[in-house]
Design brief:
heterodimer; A: Rossmann fold; five-stranded parallel sheet; five-stranded antiparallel sheet; 15 strands; about 35% helix; B: alpha/beta; Rossmann fold; seven-stranded mixed sheet; 7 helices
Chain lengths: ~475, ~180
């Protein structure tokens, strides 16, 4: 840890500082530099820190100049202002450490200039900065990370000379030190030179061991397509909302198992207890809110479960039950013994929604309403269907009606309807119309080809 | 040669190295392996170690995978590391004491990059520690005004990490087709 030997830390106040550099400073002040700096309010401060590249910083500094407090000016470009020192960005611990001494030197000089001719006056108290050397190399990290001396951004430049430096830093100063060990440690020149060796894995001529990845067996296309029909139906698009086929795209959730499942989930979450949903035919689903899991005795991919979901249920066919602690132990043991039947709770709701709707929409949906996705579904644990990721991405960025999203992506409407039904059942859409806004960013078209090739590679279709 | 890169970040132990290994064409390289000869003769030290992996799309096109140094004190180098990056993969460890603090720290540190490009978040070890849940993370992202995809992942799983990258690419351009 860095440390003053005689006095307490330098009291500083932060003026305008960008969030990134503020995070760096706060991190440094709380850790390695905690005995060097202490953040206080402006009146209490001995020095002020300002990020000169930040909006409004110059004005703020001018306003504070009448306080005559020395300033530490952070900027990527050199800044020469009276009564200030300049610290180049990116900031380094070494530069920050040295800044303390420089600020005191600045204050001493200003004091000496303002004072009458010294007559046997005592020299101003000088704070000596003694630090445990955190950087083995005397030239690092400022030289390593600061400004132009740093190599080009990794993995981007094609400059042949570009190298990534291997920076060696002594971390033994973190929080576990005895203060008595805090003494300056001179750095041997040969050590510094050694650390200057650079290494760039992206361009270094080193042996790269290829990975032989096991290819997971693909589901046969006809099996996958059959499942997608179960999940999303096979309805054709409707171009005209006044089309008489429109009525067929709606369903009434209250008539299906889905409403019982949602009621059970609501009860489980509200009571924070596991709830058993007894299904027709003797099966059941156990909803466990504390672990966000569901255990179902029926395979959610089986025809039996699909039929259970997409056929209306009669009153009394399904029952909710809060198990006693003895019952719960038995049920949980059964779940553990059949771990393949355990799903993420959201995944269970998702698949029940899809199998119920089969590409239809709840009767309560206004198809002309523009909506946007508030939160992404947990895709890694949900059953997938075509275009699901693109739908989520677009709806997350741009409010739109169901028809607009399908048209923008040029995909069958049934996939958009399916996504909407399942994601809205999970409460992932923004309900507040005043909060809808576009978050679309400019898309560099030249990247589209690369993205497509990368996707193809990752999904197993592209060659190395 | 066309070179692009994806940055993996997150606290120590969140699974950055493992996630890179899950999708890399090469066995990941950790830069400190190459510094060990220099350092082993001195007192214990930690190298600023980046993990590196690679996806080769063709002889002339590569996507580099960089894992940021785990020690948060080196965040001053992240600006440089992200230059030219496609996007950010933030991995959080659900067993950490305060994963929301981690989320705030890393999203703050990479804010400019996230706003310019995109971020996806993978939460690891949710099987070991169920709480906080994804709904809690979503709320945290919302409070930070970041509508980023967030998934539970097993960093060892090619499928899970691939899905994170898919979400990243589609977030950058939903018009991409595979």
């Amino acid at each position: 840890m860095l440390k003053h030997s005689k006095t307490g830390p330098l009291k500083v106040a932060l003026l305008s500082v960008g969030p990134h550099n503020r995070a760096i400073l706060e991190f440094f002040f709380a850790g390695a530099g905690r005995s060097l700096f202490k953040t206080v309010s402006i009146p209490e401060a001995e020095a002020l820190i300002v990020d000169y590249d930040h909006v409004g910083a110059k004005d703020e500094w001018e306003q504070q100049s009448n306080t005559h407090k020395p300033g530490i000016v952070l900027s990527v470009h050199p800044v020469e202002l009276s009564n200030t020192i300049w610290l180049p960005k990116p900031l380094t611990s070494k530069a920050l450490t040295e800044a303390v001494g420089r600020v005191y030197a600045l204050a001493s000089a200003a004091e000496a200039a303002a004072a009458p001719a010294p007559v046997a006056a005592e020299p101003p108290p000088k704070r000596e900065v003694v630090r445990e050397e955190p950087v083995v190399s005397s030239s690092a990290p400022q030289q390593l990370f600061g400004g132009g001396s740093f190599p080009q951004p990794f993995g981007v430049s094609a400059k042949p000379a570009r190298k990534l430096r291997s920076l060696v830093i002594d971390l033994s100063d973190e929080d576990d030190e005895d203060d008595s060990s805090l003494v300056a440690k001179p750095v041997a020149p040969e050590v510094a030179a050694e650390v200057e060796k650079v290494f760039d894995p992206a361009e270094a001529n080193i042996s790269m061991e290829e990975v032989a990845r096991t290819v997971e067996p693909e589901v046969p296309p006809e099996v996958a397509e059959q499942r997608w029909r179960e999940l999303c139906g096979d309805r054709e698009d409707i171009d005209d909302p006044s089309d008489r086929r429109m009525d067929a795209i709606f369903f009434t959730p209250e008539n299906y198992l889905l409403s019982n499942v949602l009621e059970a989930v609501r009860l489980a979450r509200q009571s924070n207890q596991s709830v058993q949903l007894k299904l027709p035919g003797g099966g059941y689903a156990l909803l466990m809110p504390d672990m966000s899991q569901a255990y179902c005795t029926l395979d959610t991919r089986a025809d039996e479960f699909a039929m259970l979901c997409n056929n209306p249920v009669q009153t009394g066919q399904v029952a909710l039950h809060i198990p006693s602690s003895t019952e719960l132990l038995q049920l949980e043991e059964e779940a553990r013994d059949h771990a393949g039947g355990i799903l993420d709770l959201e995944a269970f709701i998702w698949v029940v929604s899809l199998l119920t709707a089969q590409g239809r929409l709840s009767r309560n949906v206004d198809v002309n309403k523009r909506i946007a996705l508030k939160h992404w579904p947990n895709m890694t644990r949900l059953e997938q269907f075509p275009q699901v990721m693109r739908i989520a991405a677009l709806w997350s960025q741009r409010p739109g009606t169901l028809f607009e999203i399908a048209k923008a992506l040029d995909i069958p409407q049934r996939y958009v309807f399916s996504f909407y039904t399942a994601a809205s059942t999970l409460n992932l859409f923004e309900l507040d119309q005043t909060k809808l806004k576009s978050r679309e960013k400019e898309k560099p078209q030249e990247s589209r080809g690369l993205f497509a090739r990368l996707l193809k590679r990752l999904l197993g279709g592209g060659k190395k | 040669m066309i070179n692009r890169k994806i940055i993996f970040t997150g606290p120590v132990g969140a699974g950055k190295t493992t996630a890179i290994a899950a999708i890399s064409d090469i066995k990941p390289i950790t830069t400190d392996e190459y510094a060990s000869d220099m350092t082993k003769s001195r007192k214990p030290q930690t190298t600023v170690a980046m993990d590196y992996g690679l996806i080769r799309l063709s002889d002339k096109e590569r996507v580099h995978l960089y894992g940021t140094p785990g020690q948060e004190r080196f965040d001053f180098m992240w600006d440089i590391l992200t230059k030219g990056g496609i996007g950010l993969v933030l991995l959080l460890d659900n067993t950490r004491k305060d994963p929301f603090q981690d989320m705030r720290f890393y999203t703050n540190a990479f804010r400019d990059f996230i706003e310019k490009q995109q971020m996806v978040v993978g939460v690891t070890r949710m099987d070991l520690q169920h709480k906080p849940g994804l709904a809690d993370y979503r709320q945290c992202l919302e409070s930070l005004s970041l509508p980023s995809p967030i998934f539970e992942i097993d960093a060892r799983s090619h499928k899970d990490v691939t899905m994170l990258i898919q979400a990243l690419l589609f977030s950058l351009d939903p018009g991409v087709t595979n």
